[in-house]
Design brief:
Number of strands: 17
InterPro entries: Folylpolyglutamate_synth (IPR001645), Folylpolyglutamate_synth_CS (IPR018109), Mur-like_cat_sf (IPR036565), Mur_ligase_C (IPR004101), Mur_ligase_C_dom_sf (IPR036615), Mur_ligase_cen (IPR013221)
Enzyme class: ligase
Strand order of the largest sheet: 4-3-2-5-1-6-7-8
Oligomer: single chain
Family: Belongs to the folylpolyglutamate synthase family.
Helix content: 40-55%
Distance between the termini: 30 Å
Domain Mur ligase C-terminal: 306-423
Strand content: 15-25%
GO molecular function: dihydrofolate synthase activity; tetrahydrofolylpolyglutamate synthase activity
Shape: globular
Structural class: alpha/beta
């Protein structure tokens, strides 16, 4: 098969969560273990770092990968979903997996795929592990897909586990309370392996994390208890922050610059800083200079896109992949703070989300351009318009995000601002991204 035929085979043959939702969800590790066993268990051939959480795990994964790369290591990075190209999911030192490897891998594993009937995600996880071995990485940063305990990536025994935060998302799979969701995320904690939790959110979540770490005899750090990351300003397209050690009130990094300018990155940076300290204590050669070089160019080093990304000026256009209540709360607050004129929203959602709660976060004194992502789970723009009207949000419908964005730009004065989002897949459809 050619590369396009191979990708077509994967999408047609295997259940894909991003396309069909719950019907593609296949909890448990048996199939992934069988796929990996057939490959010689490549995931055991190099050190790994495992990252879970509701929001922020993608940014955290990219930041840690950038730091390790700038420290001289050859770094594998596995994340999901992709925005533009399947190959984005699997990178080594920022470069996407070659088409030739994907074709070869699928051809070699076709009999196992037919025998085991894995999900799309299970195959991509095994593919990533195999490629990282072939590429002779020094370390691989592995982002959890959903949850943690039963996620396909949870076949690894990492050097370090990181859990970013807990909020309501995928409740039909992970549970209907924050405590239950935290229990699923805490499932990546392994015996004796250090774990960093980026944020101490409340006692319900904190107690779950503490109990899981104690049961596994895993050293636990709540990064937000150890460090405070203070916003300074945004200058030259970079966010400047100070990292303060709480116990001593000592500034451990002043004027630290990052190209990831979303306000939610403050919490992620605390987790990354604590993770870096744990890795250093375990003998990894990471200097403050390498951290500074990495964080000011995460997008360039690792290819990260769609996290509070400014697409144009006058009018200012921002996009963000936030797709649940907790994520949207933070991005909409930041949008409110930067908008000097009329607020305009180009929004779309997938149909299996609790969009009523998310729509309630949007301001009524704004103009709306309702669209739908090019995704099988997409909520129709007309239904979104009707649901939004129930919340007092008024706007027009469009066939896709680019038509909606063009109209929003035409309607805008130079001082207006446009937010594009609601779903990862809406952002993925932006042609200029």
């Amino acid at each position: 098969m050619t590369y396009q035929e191979t990708i077509g085979y994967l999408y047609d043959r295997l259940p894909v969560f991003q396309n069909i939702g719950a019907r593609a969800f296949k909890p448990g590790l048996h199939t992934t273990r069988e796929l990996c066993k057939a490959l010689g268990d490549p995931q055991d051939k190099y050190p790994t770092i495992h990252i879970a959480g509701t929001n922020g795990k993608g940014s955290t994964s990219h930041m840690l990968a950038a730091i390790l790369q700038e420290s001289g290591y050859r770094v594998g990075l596995y994340t999901s979903p992709h925005l533009k190209d399947f190959r984005e999911r699997i990178r080594v030192n920022g470069a996407c997996i070659p088409e030739e490897f994907i074709v070869e891998f699928v051809a070699d594993q076709k009999s196992n795929i037919d025998r085991l009937s894995p999900s799309f995600f299970e195959v991509t996880v095994a593919m990533a592990f195999s490629y990282f071995q072939r590429a002779r990485v020094d370390v691989a940063v592995i982002e959890v897909g959903m949850g943690g305990r039963l996620d396909s990536t949870n076949v690894i025994t990492p050097e370090l586990s990181v859990i970013t935060n807990i909020s309501f998302d995928h409740m039909q799979f992970l549970g209907d309370t924050l405590g239950k969701i935290a229990g699923e995320k805490a499932g990546i904690i392994k015996n004796g392996i250090p774990v960093v939790v980026s944020e101490y959110q409340n006692a319900e979540i904190g107690d779950v994390m503490t109990a899981a770490a104690e049961a596994a005899n895993a050293p636990l750090t709540f990064a937000s208890n150890a460090f405070e990351v203070k916003f300074d300003k945004v200058s030259g397209g970079k966010m400047l922050v100070d990292v303060v050690e709480k116990a001593s009130r000592r500034i451990v990094s002043e004027g630290l610059a990052t190209d990831l300018t979303g306000s939610y990155q403050l919490k992620n940076i605390a987790g990354v800083w604590a993770a870096k300290d744990v890795l250093v204590s375990k003998g990894w050669k990471i200097t403050d200079d390498s951290v500074k070089r990495a964080l000011q160019a995460v997008s360039a080093i690792t290819g990260l896109k769609g996290r509070w990304q400014q697409l144009r000026q006058n009018p200012d256009v921002y996009c963000d992949t936030a797709h649940n209540t907790a994520g949207l709360t933070m991005t909409l607050a930041q949008f409110e703070s930067v908008c000097k004129g009329r607020k305009r929203f180009v929004v779309g959602f997938v149909g299996d989300k609790d969009i009523s709660t998310m729509l309630s976060l949007f301001p009524k004194d704004a103009d709306y351009y309702f669209c739908e992502p090019s995704n099988m789970r997409a909520l129709k723009a007309e239904e979104l318009q009707s649901r939004a009207l129930e919340q007092g949000l008024v706007g027009k419908t469009f066939g896709n995000v680019n038509e909606a964005l063009e109209e929003a730009v035409r309607d805008s004065s130079p001082t207006d601002a446009i937010y594009v989002g609601g779903s990862t897949f809406v952002v993925a459809d932006i042609e200029s991204l």
